[in-house]
Amino acid sequence: MSSLYQQLCFLAPSEKGFRNDWKHDETGEWKIEALTKEIKSIQDSVFEKVFSAETTSLGVRFVEKKVIFVAAGSAAAKQGIQAGVRFVKIDGKSVPNSTSAINAMLRLILRKSKSFSVTLRPPTARERHRDSGKPLTKPSHSSSKISTSPKLHLNGSASQGSGGSSRSEVDTKSAASETQVTEEIIKLKNSVSGLQKKLDTERKLRENERQQGDIWKQLMNSQIQELETAHKVKEEELKQSNAKIARLSESLDKTNQESARLKERLSKTSDELENTKKAYDDSNQKKQRAEKEKSEIKTKYDSTKKELEEITKIFNNGQQLMLSAHKKIEELEAKLKEAEDSKLKRLLQRKDEEITRLKRQVEDLVRIGGVGASSQARDPSKGELGRHRNGFGSDNSFKIDSADIEDMDLKELYAKVDTDIGTHGTIVLLVSHCAGQVAKGQQDRLRHLFAALGYKFEEVDGAMNKSLRVVLCEKSGIGTYPQVFMKSGEGDNAGYVFIGDSQRVFDMNEVGKIHQIFRGCARNKPSA
User: Fold this and answer.
1) What is the reported pTM?
2) End-to-end Cα spacing for the chain
3) pLDDT tens-digit profile of 336-388?
4) Which of 156, 199, 252, 284, CA to CA, is 20 to 30 A from 32?
């Protein structure tokens, strides 16, 4: 078979049924010039259309290489593709004459989500003629018939005379024999032609099977490459996750060490504060005693002044008495002045110095307490650790009283928890693996908080369990993640109480009330 004819059949498979049209009738040789001209005409008529990466479907139906339908408004229609055109290449690769193979190539290209090109060509004259529904005609290549004319003698004249009848019988038998041979030759040629057609059909099937095998091989190789690439990506993600877990473990160890140091520092500071309070109480007692002594001295001074007034009256009654009283007054004034300049003055001076020293100690304590409170105010997200970092216990100046608790509706929550849950319950976290980065961070913080406090908890993935998510969101009245609930019972008999979102739980932990809320919940067994 001519290579030019094979190339033509690949470009236009409909030519496979018209093989004899491309041969000379007399010699049976291939029409090289006509084949070359037809191949060049088909190659010059091809055109290319480029589709974007957003294309998910061409919107066409086809049988083998022929496009039989183009949907209105589809990607192919927007590119000006019309029914009747034939596929030539897809993304630069030649397409076989197989509907399933072309479908597989398109699915593979569309799944990659990248721009690609489709090369097409208009139908040939023979294809247009066949598409119009008119019957196709093949040229008749009948074998040359054997002549059955009467035989001539050597002298070129027909037989005559007395021997004419015998010769006529011989000629009749000879003609019949030649006709029978001709019919057998025609049957043999028809049989050979049928076998040739079967051979061509078998070759066509083998060629299509080979082309489909190549296409499927390319598809399998491409899928294997994609799977290997995905496997490498997953391995890299696993390595990164392991590294992240190692960093988190190291950070947790450091946090535990820092917590131990802070607890030790808190214990020392509490002892120092207790000693300072005792010293302050002693100073108050000393101050009270000094005030009492001062009051007694003032009382004595008042009585002495009364005596002086009585003496003055006696001095007015008589000069002598006045002189003696004057002397006595001078003596008393001298004694009083001596008492004021010596004992009383020194005592008051010591008391004033002691009071001044106590005031300085109180100011130092107030200043230290203010620094601790401001440091906690700047970092309120430290949980249990942040509340003790300023060096004060639960009795210092930085605390949240019952008014703060009422603002957080915790009293009402206590009653609700006691009524619905009782002393037994389970902590439930409503989370979602589809949440954003901020919500995922809050979910991780809640997991770490309950793990650090030793509580057991269950997680409900709202993206996977939609029915339970609806029930819980109706309970809470919000639709964001994460949320915290307490559950009593199991299965359909389970009851839920909404505790709050992540920020509210962090605030409960900040004020030291989280154990009161979850006091009846299951906890992890302490490690040996």
Assistant:
1) 0.31
2) 87
3) 677 666 666 677 777 777 777 766 766 665 555 444 434 444 444 434 333 33
4) 199
